Amino acid sequence: MTTAPITAGLDLGNGYVKANINGLVRVFPSIAVKQFNTSHHTPLGDDEIGTFMNDIINQMDVSFSSPLVRSTERRLFGERALKSGLNLEEFDVFARTGKAEVDLSGVLALATIAADRLYDFYDKNGSLPVSGKLKVKVDLATALPIGEFKHHAKAFKQKFLNEGAPHIATFYNFERPVHVEIVFENVYVANEGESAQYGLMLAKDQFLDMIHREAVKRFPNGELDGITGKDLVSAKNTLGIDIGEGTIDFAVFSNGKFNGDASSTMNQGYGTVLESTLTKLQDEGYPYKSRKELSEFIHNEPSPFTKKKWTHVKNVNQSEENRFGDVVSSEVSKVFSRVGGFIEVIFVFGGGATPLEWSLFNKLQSRVAEFGDDNLLPIVYLDSAFSRFLNVQGLFQVAQRLRPETANTRKLAKAK
Ligand SMILES: Nc1ncnc2c1ncn2[C@@H]1O[C@H](COP(=O)(O)OP(=O)(O)OP(=O)(O)O)[C@@H](O)[C@H]1O
Ligand SMILES: [Mg+2]
């Protein structure tokens, strides 16, 4: 059964997938698990399927047949993967095999789309497809880190397009397998950080107010008086600093266009902080196994029993944050010595922005001041709670413009 093509923006982050499919935003950890015990598999009964659908990412058991995925084994995702106790398939923030080359990118992209299609079918029909088969056509925009884009974007796009042939995702949670055939009709691969800038450029009123509030709160002496949110996001010459889990992308825009020559990627991110905290704690005998586990412990309130440990862990993590703040700000100096002359506004965003703010913001300000002339150069430091989603929102906007009859993506930078 076929339906209208879907529009998908997919930000396949080192830490988390951010997906926007037909306007619905989802976020889940970028992990999967293979080689779990499938012999205990009990198919879901009819009365259990509704509950499954509402938590599909965390429950599904899926295999893939696609040029994007070499290993055709069944995989689990989200919470079921985390709780399986098995080795996680994760983007490795140290090994520099790119996102375009590992199975996980394809796995996460296809899984997200297949889950959306199956969810949608069940939502409309109240049952699984009798034929055991669903089809879906997709307009997709996704991104690669700036450092990877140059050499891999084209091949990555071709793998999605697959010469028009379908990618197949098969669900094993039910009495009989359900196959979802995915055909990508239009695909656009952007640079991470570039897509976030599109998210900013195309921001609507409420969001513009938020950007403005965030900006002025860090310039308490009225430096930004008279400047609106729209002014900030409409600046033609900008530097975007996207602090992710495994990479920091420095995306430069000149005259309103992405400037690939001046943009770059640093192969470290907030995950580097977590990894080095983890190593320190393990040396001290603490039993944490993964940076996800550590991150969960740090980001949640401690109980009276864990308070002492939490305080210690937090202190170790803070000193790593501070050290990493120095690393990032000296990298910013390098970028700035290349492009500082023409930059009008700096944006800082991504999941790592807020955790690093206490250490990083002042350092950035003084680094930038070293290059100073008398011009005001606002650093618009955006809260991670929403700025983690800038890339995916920009990608969704791009995906909406991929059909020839709607618009030309090249015009995107100008379209405000
Ligand atoms: N509310 C939050 N929920 C989850 N993680 C958060 C949150 N706020 C900050 N973080 C931190 O942000 C990081 C993930 O950021 P983000 O989602 O931007 O990275 P990513 O896009 O997955 O990675 P990359 O850009 O390197 O591919 C994690 O290391 C996490 O610890
Ligand atoms: Mg990211």
* Strand order, largest beta sheet: 3-2-1-8-10-9-5-6-4-7
In which range does the helix fraction lie? 40-55%
The set of bound ligands, ions and cofactors reads: adenosine-5'-triphosphate, magnesium ion
What Rg is obtained from the alpha carbons, in whole angstroms? 22 Å
List the secondary-structure elements in sequence, H or E: EEEEHHEEHEHEHEEHHHEEEEHHHEHEHH
Low-confidence stretches: none
**Average pLDDT number:** 91
- Give the CATH architecture of the largest domain: 2-Layer Sandwich
Whole-number total of structural domains? 2
What summary fits the major beta sheet?
10 strands, mixed
Described by the principal axes of the CA atoms, the overall outline is globular
- Let me know the CATH homologous superfamily of the largest domain: ATPase, nucleotide binding domain
What is the CATH class of the largest domain?
Alpha Beta
Beta-strand level of the residues, as a percent range?
Answer: 15-25%
How would you name the oligomeric state of the polypeptide chains in this document?
single chain
SS summary, helix count: 14
CATH topology of the largest domain: Nucleotidyltransferase, domain 5
In whole angstroms, the N-to-C terminal distance is 37 Å
